[in-house]
Amino acid sequence: MIVEALNLLKSKKMILHGLAFFGFFMFIYTLIDGFNLSYTAMAGMYGSTLVVINIVLNILMASLSAFLLNLSTAMAALKGKESKGSNLSFFSVLFGILTYGCTPCVIGFFASIGIAFSVIALPLAGLPYKLISLLLIVIGILWTVREINVGQCKVNYSK
Fold first, then answer.
1. Is residue 155 included in any domain, yes or no?
2. In this structure, what DSSP letter does residue 119 have?
3. Which of 56, 90, 101, 120 is the most core-located residue (most Cβ within 10 A)?
4. Total domain count for the chain?
5. Under 8 Å between Cβ of 137 and 65
6. Which of 48, 32, 54 has its CA nearest to residue 102?
7. CA–CA distance, 115 with 106 (Å, rounded to integer)
8. 103 in helix, strand or coil?
């Protein structure tokens, strides 16, 4: 079944959707990085290597998130149901906003629910949190592929 899903991903419509998803996620990830620490300030504090790593991770995460959403769309077209694993890309973005996102906003948000100054020191401009987000996206892809391969459709046996 995964072969059919991958063939469906090669259609012009799915490629255009993938490019749109990629652009959207690149915008979101770059915006989150900018709210946390500008690339110029990041290069000044940690060196240009960390900036390159962050940009490469943004491209990788945006690509994988777009692939995950397209794969989930292909599964919905083939099986008539959405993958539960596709929600992990959303949680990855939410996790990013709440951890390595706009620090003053996050501190204000956490303070409003009783957690004060929880993100006052983010190591390496939030790189560990970005890696956790990447892990969530990869888990979502693996989950969706598993659902495509072994997931079963509900069949009504009544006459």
1. no
2. T
3. 101
4. 1
5. yes
6. 32
7. 10
8. helix
Q: What is the distance between the alpha carbons of residues 51 and 46, in angstroms, rounded to a whole number?
A: 8
Angle at 100 between CA 116 and CA 86, to 5 degrees: 115
| pLDDT string in tens for the chain (159-residue length) | 778 888 888 999 999 999 999 999 899 888 878 877 788 988 998 899 999 999 999 999 899 888 888 888 887 777 776 655 555 555 655 555 555 555 555 555 555 555 444 444 567 777 877 887 888 888 888 888 888 887 655 555 565
Q: How far apart are CA 158 and CA 149, in angstroms?
A: 26
Question: Scanning the structure block, which residue is given the tokens 């979502």?
Answer: 140
Cα separation, 89 vs 95, in Å, equals 10
First to last CA, the chain: 28
Domain for residue 22, yes or no? yes
Domain of residue 48 covers: 2-150
Q: Which two tokens stand for residue 50?
A: 């960390």
The conformation of residue 62, written as its DSSP 8-state character, comes to: H
Structure tokens at 156: 């009504």
* pTM metric for this prediction: 0.72
List, in sequence order, the alpha helices (H) in 37-47: 39-46
